[in-house]
Specification:
Number of strands of chain B: 20
Number of helices of chain B: 8
Oligomer: heterodimer
CATH architecture of the largest domain in chain B: 3-Layer(aba) Sandwich
Strand order of the largest sheet of chain A: 1-2
CATH superfamily of the largest domain in chain B: P-loop containing nucleotide triphosphate hydrolases
CATH class of chain A: Mainly Alpha
Radius of gyration of chain B: 24 Å
Largest sheet of chain B: 6 strands, mixed
Helix content of chain A: over 70%
CATH superfamily of chain A: MetI-like
Strand content of chain A: under 5%
Radius of gyration of chain A: 27 Å
Helix content of chain B: 10-25%
Distance between the termini of chain B: 47 Å
CATH topology of chain A: MetI-like fold
CATH architecture of chain A: Orthogonal Bundle
Number of strands of chain A: 2
Largest interface: A-B, 21 and 27 residues
Shape of chain A: globular
Structural class of chain A: mainly alpha
CATH class of the largest domain in chain B: Alpha Beta
Chain lengths: 313, 354
């Protein structure tokens, strides 16, 4: 009786070392969840965490895959930050990312506004605009190379028929980057449109009714109601596009090979070239660490902003 | 003076059968008109047509004598309170209230003055900088009201604004709305399916069924003088007992020739164990007591009679035991309805003594 009262008075759980009987009874049960997630964790570790760790490890060494590894401390990073070509690479990547985001999102919002009305034509256009997204990037790159060919390409042919000066799409230092951006926007705009469209269709109609009773003109309704309501989707797309842009490789490799004169060398292409063409694996790893940090910061920013912006839900 | 006039209005969605046809309705200036009816009777559609959110398929709607054809909702001098409040979730309470004013291009100092005024009126002063998601249902309701009031509209349209609140809050906001109506003196058009709301707040009730007006009257007249069987059954809780006219056979009562149904309100009925002596002024119907609900101040009885079930509301604290009973009603409290379910006016009736 008295024992029961004491137990009631201090409901604190007993420390783990005194739970002998419970332990044997429930040890199996307590291990079960860990057992169940083990396969996933193994995959995660082998293919994600271990390579990342190894990359960070490699970035402190000099290694060409033949000679033994040589520890150089922060030398790779120092060399990198002293190299103007590296900054050119970073700038190129930022330029590519900025314009792809700007046009990829901007055009997608306009397209979504246009396609919002559920008509038969719009449903057809929706699937059409989505098509580039399902095409493999390598074939896309080849098609665009063909279109952008200086002498035989369709784009220059069209310019010529309109009596406009032709453009050296992939061979000019000032144009090549924008050509890559064009391809990237063309590829991502359909996906973005689809996501934005579904977000717009999820905005309850009564908000628009309330706005019309509040005499809100169309533009104000868009900026004050539609845009804030779809902002979670916009943020999501921004992050996804941002990461995809920072990782751009296929089009650069196939269409310009980083040229002309490094005008289109982006971070990932630079990593590839330093690592697997010049066999400077330590240096390439250091570049990889920089990329990882940039994407990490973007992701943190995203979640910081998101948690602030979406609390109305 | 009439404020809103609907002339021969019809509404159909797509190619479906019209939900409203040949509707004529006049709403007086300064009235609190309640559109009352069961769900699907078209009451919300009427309200939304007045607001301009739905376009009438045929007919004309006038506000202040002017046709509203092609006039945007924002230009109709109206404000609407939605059933789900329709607050802008991305704006603060202040932003919600201010949005309409900004669109009306009202100056900042005036805006602030009006917001302060209205916030005080609906007790929202402390919540102005909160987001709607941080408010309770009742508070959101008040924001929706504030958003409507601040625009100083000449007509308030309310679409079941209380249906998402619990019963206690509903009763409170009901009295608040009556106070608001008296204070503002604007025209209110209020949609509900709840007769208590209609009776307690309305100065006019428009009773609707299947897109048609069954009766348009003051609440007390709707209760005392139902125009037809539908009104009689809809108003009152529990509803009026309606029996076939055969129930009056052999009762020695005067009844109109055309009568097909006889009705009596449960609260006008008496219930007793012993059958009282017959006289010319009372109707007695024998039956069997089926259920009994004692609510404290009143007791509801359900009685099975040969003519159908009847309900009796008794204010006596003496409970009647289960078993055979007699339901009685005074002749003056009887309503007679004809074949077409219309009430027969007892002043102009043609009497046939039986």
């Amino acid at each position: 009786m008295k024992k029961g009262v004491v137990a009631l008075a201090c409901p604190r759980p007993r420390p783990f070392w005194s739970r002998t009987r419970e332990k044997t009874k429930t040890a199996g049960r307590r291990m079960l969840p860990y057992l169940l997630i083990a396969p996933a964790m193994v995959v995660l570790f082998v293919f994600l965490l271990y390579p990342i760790g190894y990359m960070v490890f490699l970035s402190f060494f000099e290694w060409n895959m033949i000679k033994p590894m040589e520890f150089v401390g922060l030398q790779n990073f120092i060399t990198m930050f002293k190299d103007p070509a590296f900054f050119q690479t970073l700038l190129n990547t930022l330029q590519y990312t900025f314009f792809t985001l700007l046009f990829g999102m901007g055009l997608a919002i306009l397209a979504a506004l246009f396609l919002k009305k559920n008509t038969r034509l719009n449903r057809f256009l929706q699937s059409t605009i989505f098509m580039p997204y399902v095409m493999p990037l390598v074939s896309v790159a080849f098609i665009w190379m063909w279109l952008m060919d200086t002498d035989y390409g369709l784009l220059n042919f069209l310019l010529q028929t309109l009596h406009l000066p032709t453009v050296d799409w992939l061979g000019s230092t000032s144009v090549a980057m924008y050509s890559l951006i064009l391809v990237s926007v063309w590829k991502c705009v359909g996906y973005n449109t689809l996501i934005i469209l579904s977000a717009m269709q999820a905005v309850p109609n009564y908000l628009y009714e309330a706005a019309s009773l509040d005499r809100a003109p169309a533009r104000r309704t868009f900026f004050k109601i539609t845009l804030p309501m779809i902002s979670p989707s916009l943020f999501f797309l921004t992050l996804m596009n941002l990461i995809a842009c920072f990782k751009v490789f296929e089009t650069v490799n196939l269409m310009t090979a980083g040229g002309p004169v490094n005008a289109t060398t982006t971070l990932v292409y630079s990593i590839y070239r330093d690592g697997f063409q010049f066999y400077k694996l330590g240096y390439a790893s250091a570049e990889g660490v920089v990329l990882m940090v940039i994407i990490g910061i973007c992701t943190l920013l995203y979640f910081g902003v998101l948690s602030k912006r979406v609390h109305y839900r | 003076m009439e404020k809103i006039v609907l002339k021969d209005v019809a509404k159909a969605y797509g190619k479906n059968k019209p939900v409203i046809e040949h509707l004529d309705l006049t709403i007086q200036k300064g009235s609190f008109t309640v559109l009352l009816g069961p769900s699907g009777c078209g009451k919300s559609t009427i309200l939304r047509m007045i607001a301009g959110l739905e376009k009438e398929t045929a007919g004309e709607i006038q506000i202040d004598g002017k046709s509203m054809k092609g006039v945007d909702p924002g230009d109709r001098q109206i404000a609407m309170v939605f059933q789900n409040y329709a607050l802008y979730p991305t704006m603060t309470v202040r932003g919600n209230i201010e949005f309409g004013l900004k669109n009306m291009k009202i100056e900042k100092s005036e805006r602030q003055k009006r917001i302060a005024e209205v916030a005080k009126m609906v007790n929202l002063e402390e919540y102005l900088d909160r987001m709607p998601s941080q408010l309770s249902g009742g508070q959101r309701q008040r924001v929706a009201l504030a958003r409507a009031i601040v625009k100083k509209p000449s007509v308030f349209l309310m679409d079941e604004p209380l249906s998402n609140l619990d019963s206690k809050l509903r009763a409170q906001i009901r009295t608040d709305l009556i106070e608001l109506y008296r204070k503002l003196g604007s025209t209110f058009v209020y949609v509900t399916h709840d007769q208590v709301e209609a009776m307690s707040m309305g100065t006019d009730i428009v009773l609707l069924e299947n897109g048609q007006i069954r009766q348009h009257d003051a609440p007390i007249d709707l209760y005392n003088l139902p125009a037809n069987l539908f009104s009689a059954r809809f108003i009152g809780s529990p509803p009026m007992n309606i029996l076939p006219i055969q129930a009056t056979n052999g009762s020695n009562l005067t009844r109109p020739m055309a009568a097909a149904h006889v009705g009596m309100r449960p609260e006008a009925c008496m219930i007793s164990v012993k059958r009282p002596a017959a006289n010319g002024r009372m109707l007695h119907i024998d039956g069997e007591l089926v259920t009994r609900e004692a609510l404290g101040d009143q007791t509801l009885y359900k009685v099975q009679t040969p003519y159908g079930q009847m309900q009796v509301k008794s204010f006596s604290s003496q409970l009647i035991p289960y078993g055979p009973v007699t339901v009685s009603a005074e002749a003056a409290n009887l309503y007679f309805f004809d074949e077409g379910e219309q009430r027969i006016d007892m002043q102009a009736r043609s009497v046939s003594a039986l």
